[in-house]
Structure formats: structure tokens, C-alpha cells
Amino acid sequence: MLNVTAFYKTFSFSIIGLIIYLSTNVFSQNIEIYVSDAGNFSNPPWKILKFDENGENPEIFIDTVLAWPQDIVFLEDQQVVLISNLNSGRITKYNSSTGDYIENFATGIAGPTRMKIGADSLLYVLQWSGNGNVRRYQLDGTYVGEFTSVGVPQSIGLDWDSNGNLYVSSYTGDNVRKFEPNGNDLGLFVTSNLAGPTNIWFDNNGNLLVSDYDGTAVKKFNSNGVFQNNFATGLSQSEGVDYFSNGNILVGNGATHSVKMFDSNGVYIEDFIPNGSGGLITPNAIVIRETNVSSVSGDENILNDMGFILEQNYPNPFNPTTNIEYRIADFGFISLKVYNVLGTEIETLVKEYKPAGTYEIKFDASGLVSGVYFCQLKAGSFTQAKKMILLR
How far is residue 110's CA from residue 89's CA, in Å, rounded to a whole number? Predict the structure, then answer.
């Protein structure tokens, strides 16, 4: 039979110990912003810049074996980052911590531009030239083949809707083409109101947002491809996009050599990375990266033994379920919640007292639309979030 007095003594000492530990070891979720700088387009300087979570303290992360870089994809489990290079036809691989060049991930591509990992855990790669078909690769660089048989000239933006249909933008065609989940062509989806579309992405309501490079806005189209409005304005040569957990959006703006921030409704907030910061010339890809939790003491052994950790969900992207693993340091009250990009709570997965240990829970996103979601772990004063991508 449980000794209630002993239980509460143990509980009290555990909580006191936890509070003392947290007061002497300040934890922080480290966010880094990576920006591809296309420089003078077909001519250098080319580089990948790294900024802190406030868009400050720029440093050159990569400036070797680049040839008009186009996109950035981190493979966190491999501790590498991939860069697509239009001029060399190569996707190059680097150490994700140091930026040191490792090797070629893939070669012989006709001007690789955008890259995204699909729900099948394959890397989808667009081609600027050649036949314009979408290519696929395993995450070890093994070539799988062409996913589409109808080319998209100068393709430079891709995303999936909630049904798993793939959309690809054509810069010179001023349009967006739609493909079935198996790669069969469904024809043009957007044919008007565009002047050089680059990045495309779906919001949580199923609308397609399109960065219009030669226009002055990010434009919104409904699920039938009908133009709705200018979602975000005051842009010129817009390319590169990513989102914060609170719904704020970063968009590269080539005309002013900056990265602009908008809220989830498309309202301008500020120049998050100002004109020319870090030598920035032509931003054309942006990645907001959440790195592992760290302590100010820098004692990684203490962190690994006693810290709270929310692992990246797997698979990611996912459809419709994914596994979420987390580790907690001591007996205490834990909450694990899922939010959308607007910061709206979608589901509470855990909300209870739990003993120290490693746990795994399955999140079922059936009924949700494709898009970016965030899983957040809270334990006392500790908070950590991970970005999850649902692709249908």
C-alpha cells in the first residue's frame, strides 16, 4: 500500500531539486536563421549566411563549392545540410555544425532549384532547365528517378495540398502546374495575376500563397486556383520563405538586399534582416532552424543526463500520423501540445504529472490540412518546440 506521507515528501524534494537545477542551469531553445545569398546571380560572391534568432550577428556559414546556390535542406539525423547549385547542376553536402564541405550529394541535374522532402521521405528536386521534370532522391543521395513526365520550364517553387497533389511554379511561364500524388499531370492550376512566381506554399485554410518575384506582393489563390488578393505587399524580387512558430513569416526581398517579416495575416512588421547585413546581396532561400537545447554552463553531460529534450518527430514530413519522443528530467507536471503556424492550439497530447523517463506518443493529424505545425514541450520553466510538416 502506498505511504502517502512518504510519497509527498519524495514529490516535494523532487520538485525542489528540479527548481534548484533550473535556477542554476538556464536552458534555451536555440534558433538560427540561414539565408542563401545568390550574390550577382550567375556570378559570385555566393554564400550561405547564418543569423541569430533576432536576425542579428551575421556570419558566413558556407562559401565554398557553391555555384549560384538556390535552396537549403538540413538532414538533422545525418548532421548534414544540402545546398542546390543552379550553375554546376550539383547538390552539395556540408557538415551542419561547421559548414565544412563533405561531398556531392547528387550531380547531373539540369539547374537544381527548390528542394523539399516529401511524405514518402524522398527529396524532391526542381530543374530550372533541361526537360523540367521533378526528380526524386533517397536521403543518401541515391537517384530514384523522375516523378513527373510533363516539364515545368524554369521551375522554382513547390508544395503539396492536403490531398497530396504536388504544385510547381514556372518563373517564365507565370503559372503554377498541378500534379496528382503519383506524378500524373493535372494541367495548369494558376494562369493569371503572376509575374515571375518563385516560392509557393499552402496555408492552413488550403489557400495557395505565391511569391511574385517581378510583382510587388505575395499573392493568395483559393483551392480552385482563383486569385483572392495580395497577401503581403511592399515586396520586389521576393524569393525565399520560412515561418516562425508564432505564425510570423520571413520573405527574402532582393531589391533591398533584406529579409522582411510579416505576421500570419500578411501585415508587414519589420525588415528582420536589414539591407546588406552580413554582406547580403540577393536572398533566395531562408531556413529557420531549431537546434538542440543547450545550457549556459555548456555542460552537455549534465544536459544529456538531467535535461528535458523534445526530439524531432518521425517521420517528418508525415501523413497522417507521426511519433513524438521526449525525455523529462524529474517527476513533475508536463504538457505536450500541438499548434498551427498561427499559434492556435490544435491538440493537447499530454497534460499530467509524470516520473522521469523517456516517452513516445503518436500524433494523428487526420482531418488537418497540409502545412506546418509545432509540437511544444513544457516542464516547469523549460519550453522547447519542434516544427512538424504534414503533407497529404
Answer: 6
Peptide bond into 58 cis (omega under 30): no
C-alpha cell at 8: 509527498
Cβ atoms 176, 200 nearer than 8 A: yes
The 10s digit of each residue's pLDDT in 12-59 is 444 334 333 333 333 345 899 999 999 999 999 999 999 999 999 999
pLDDT tens per residue, range 132-189: 999 999 999 999 999 999 999 999 999 999 888 999 999 999 999 999 999 999 999 9
How far apart, in whole angstroms, are the C-alpha atoms of residue 307 and residue 22? 9
φ and ψ at residue 276, rounded to 5 degrees:
75, 10
Task: State the pTM of this model.
Answer: 0.77
In angstroms, what CA-CA distances link 306 with 26, 175, 382? 13, 52, 12
CA-only gyration radius of the chain, Å: 22
How far lies 267's CA from each of 217, 231, 233, in Å?
Answer: 11, 8, 8
6's CB contacts (< 8 A; 6+ apart) are none
Amino acid at 115: M
Instruction: Please report which helix (H) or strand (E) contains residue 346, including its range.
Output: strand 345-354
Domains and CATH numbers, the chain: 4-28+300-390 (2.60.40.1930), 31-290 (2.120.10.30)
Phi, psi dihedrals of residue 282, rounded to the nearest 5°: -135, 90
Q: What per-residue confidence (pLDDT) applies to 16? A: 37
Q: Which grid cell sits at 48?
A: 550561405
